[in-house]
């Protein structure tokens, strides 16, 4: 749940501070996730693989948010559904 909340916060921050590219926000989010994962587990390889996957997803998410910046309803839809999609897919795979 903290990752969903942090992705929503990063999404709003990158919309507010639009002078940085989407990939820079994705690297920052992947770094945040890597530090959070490293603090929770001791597996360095799992942390690297997970951070790479999360960083690539975040890059696409932030780029899509930038694309819909002028349409508020679409931006809100992408903002919420894009943050909940990884959680929903994880729950589907675990069920």
From TrEMBL:
Top-level taxon: Bacteria
TM region positions: 20-39, 45-65, 72-94
Keywords associated with the record: Membrane, Transmembrane, Transmembrane helix
Protein's name in the database: Integral membrane protein
Organism, as annotated: Neisseria weaveri
